Amino acid sequence: MSRPARLLGVAALLTIAWLVVGAGSAQATPVHSAAPALAWADPQAPGDDSLGIGDADGSARSEDSDRPSRGASEPAGPTGPSGPSGTESGDVNINIGGLTDKPSSSITVLLLLTFLSLLPAIVLTCTSFTKVLVVLSLTRNALGLQQTPPNQVLAGLALFLSLFIMSPVLSDIYHDGVKPYMDGDATSAQAWDDGIKPLRGFMLENADDDELELLTNVADRELPETREDTPTSTLIPAFILSELKDAFIIGFIIFIPFLIIDIVVSGALMALGMMMMPPVMVSLPFKLLLFVLVNGWGLVITALVGSYG
Questions:
Q1: Which residue among 53, 97, 131, 242 is buried most deeply as judged by most CB within 10 Å?
Q2: pTM > 0.85
């Protein structure tokens, strides 16, 4: 091989060796960024854990070691300035379902079913239904009609008249007893005591002293100092007896004009010698005519409603 060829081979080898050495040194040299990822703690500021490095004794400590361990109840996601639930910082909201003061739906349904089962007895004994129904039945008998109007019609009319008469009492019962209990503002005992007061006031107002004294003596109890101290077990039957007595008095007044018509018709038939003619057949049209002319149903209803003030 000639001398120039050897010189070119040596130069090529030197070039290749220089390139290989330069590439290796470039890979081994670290690349420095403008802002280092970690900063060493200042030896004059021991315990500075803002970057997670160092205590006063020089021992390294990571940032995660200072954080309290996350419990199962802590939310996993990041929290904003308003807290994990979106409320203001420092506010704690605890919502426990089913522990409020309001009665549950099952208790409400149970009380409603109990009230519906006792409703017929309450209507018959503690309201004006009995008196109204008795007066309407006596009016029908005074006219000489056996099944007109039917019993269902008289019972329905008596029921709605009783609702009309008892509407102020029912309103007071709802506002004083039922509504506070449903809103959770009163216990069941307080709701009972407050709710029964309007009904007791209605019965005391319409119960006579004679009946109250009679029932107290029958029960072998001492007479209360005032009417308001009368037990409910004594007040209810006394109220019923007073209602029946007033109903019979009104019925007697209703019977008088129709009785006069029967006497006049019977005398006329006797004078005419029509012994076999039933007086009721002749007097019934005159009774109906008189009842319609004087607006008999209106007078009866007005007397019934007016008897309760």
A1: 131
A2: no
50 inside domain: no
- Per the domain annotation, does 40 fall within a domain? no
The mean pLDDT of 264-292, rounded to a whole number, is 84
Hunting for tokens 């129904």 — which residue is that?
A: 133
Q: Is residue 218 part of a domain?
A: yes
Whether residue 242 contacts residue 209, with contact meaning beta carbons closer than 8 Å, is answered with no
Q: Tell me the per-residue pLDDT of 45-71, one tens digit each, with 9 for 90 and over.
A: 444 444 444 444 444 444 444 444 444
pLDDT at 29 over 60: no
Q: In whole angstroms, give the CA distance from residue 148 to residue 144.
A: 9
Give the C-alpha separation, 138 to 304, whole Å.
13
pLDDT of residue 89: 45
What is the count of structural domains for the chain? Answer: 1
252-274 pLDDT, tens digit per residue, is 999 999 999 888 888 888 888 87
Name the residue with higher pLDDT: 75 or 243.
243
Comparing CA positions, the residue from 255, 264, 250 lying closest to residue 302 is: 250
The residues facing 270 across adjacent strands are: none
In a domain, residue 152? The reply is yes
Which residues span the domain enclosing 286? 105-306
- In 3D space, the residue among 309, 297, 304, 302 whose CA is nearest the CA of residue 143 turns out to be 297
Adjacent-strand bridge partners of 83: 80
- The answer to whether 223 and 216 have CB atoms below 8 angstroms apart is yes
List phi, psi (to 5°) of 225: -65, -40
Q: Is the dihedral of CA 149, 151, 153, 159 positive or negative?
A: positive
CA distance 177 to 185: 10
Map 3-31 to HEC letters.
HHHHHHHHHHHHHHHHHHHHHHHHHHCCC
